[in-house]
Structure formats: C-alpha cells, structure tokens
Design brief:
This protein is α+β, with helices and mostly antiparallel strands. The chain is built from 4 helices and 7 strands; from the N terminus they run αβββααββββα. The radius of gyration is 27 Å and the shape is globular. The N terminus is likely disordered.
C-alpha cells in the first residue's frame, strides 16, 4: 500500500506541476529593433530639378565614397543614392555598430576622414587645388558635423563642390554626401545643415 500511495502522490505532484507550467505565461520573443530610416528625396536641399531616390542597398556602394572609403565597415551598413536631372547627386550611408561606444569611435574616425580628405586627394591627383572647411556642429541626438570640400583643376577650368556630414544616434552613424559642379558660394549650405539634422533625427 505504501508503495502504491507513494506512486499516486508522485503522479499527482507531477500532474499539478504540469498544469502550473502550462498556466505560466510565455514570454514573447524579443522583436528585432526597426531598421534606421533613410531620407526621402524631398528632404534634400531644393535643386533646379526634383530629386529622385534610388533603392536602399545593403553594404557599401560599389563605386566607394571619395572621402570615407576604407573607414566605414561593410557589416551593418546600408546606403541609398539620390540624383537630379542636372549635375547634382547625393548619397546617405547608415551603419549600425555593435555598441554605442563603437559607434562613437566610428563617428570620430569619419570626422577625421572628412577633415583630411582634401589633403589625400591632392596627393593622389597632381594639379588638384581646393579649400576644405568645417562648418560646425548640428545639435541633434549625439551630434552631427558638417564639412565642405571645394576643388578645382585650373588647367581644365572645372570646379566641384562637395558637402559632407556625419552624425550619430546611439549606436547608429550616418554619413551624408552632396555634390555638384560649381563652388561653395553656389551650394545650399544652410539647407544641407537642415537635411543633416533631419537625417539624424529620422534614424530612430
């Protein structure tokens, strides 16, 4: 009898435990955070012809970026190109780093890459002249910084102006590049600063 009673008690205990386990709520699986959002075509500074936005691609662009090539990792990176019907184009690159600390380091490295870009271009292209300027911080999230690079080939009589910025929100870093024929006087610097603020605020 004792053996039978012991067996019944064990079975009853197991049954109660099973019911209790069934009654416990199942914790939902953690949802993946939403991917950072890109700018839309209409959020770039106004141009003589409308902007057109290309698709979002994973990884780095095949043609690279003049100033930031070799700095941005392919892992965790996506990019999107924009263009107008005239000689104006732009690109946004977004990288999600493993941690906020690594994103901070990446943003600092990108700032250095932009600040030293003109000197490196001059080393690679004899005859190139230009002026590089830092246009200050944009107060959004962890901050963004704006640069311009004004280049010319006197022998060819051509001039190009590029506006660049890098900004960070947590562990997400974005780089904006805008370029067209001409010089800084004809570039929408104020509008580009606004676009930079919009881009960083829109990430998350």
């Amino acid at each position: 009898m004792r053996t039978t009673r012991t067996l019944r008690t064990a079975l009853l205990t197991a049954a109660v435990a099973g019911l209790a386990a069934t009654a416990l709520p199942t914790a939902p699986a953690a949802a993946a955070p939403p991917a950072p959002k890109f700018l839309s075509a209409g959020q770039w500074p106004a141009s003589l012809t409308p902007w057109t936005a290309g698709p979002v691609h994973k990884g780095l662009p095949e043609d690279g970026s003049v100033c930031t090539a070799g700095t941005i990792p392919a892992k965790g990176t996506r990019h999107r190109d924009f263009r107008t019907e005239l000689d104006t184009g732009a690109r946004q690159t977004i990288t999600v780093a493993p941690t906020a600390a690594k994103a901070k380091v990446l943003a600092a490295e990108l700032r250095t890459a932009l600040a030293t870009c003109l000197e490196r271009l001059k080393e690679q292209e004899p005859g190139l002249e230009g002026v590089s300027r830092y246009h200050g911080r944009v107060n959004v999230e962890e901050g963004a910084h704006v640069y311009s690079i004004d280049t010319s080939y006197p022998e060819a009589g051509s001039t190009d102006i590029g506006l660049h910025s890098v900004g960070r929100d947590g562990r997400t870093v974005t780089v904006l590049e805008w370029g067209q024929l001409g010089d800084l006087d004809g570039a929408p610097l104020k509008g580009f600063r606004k676009t930079t603020g919009t881009a960083v605020a829109k990430l998350h």
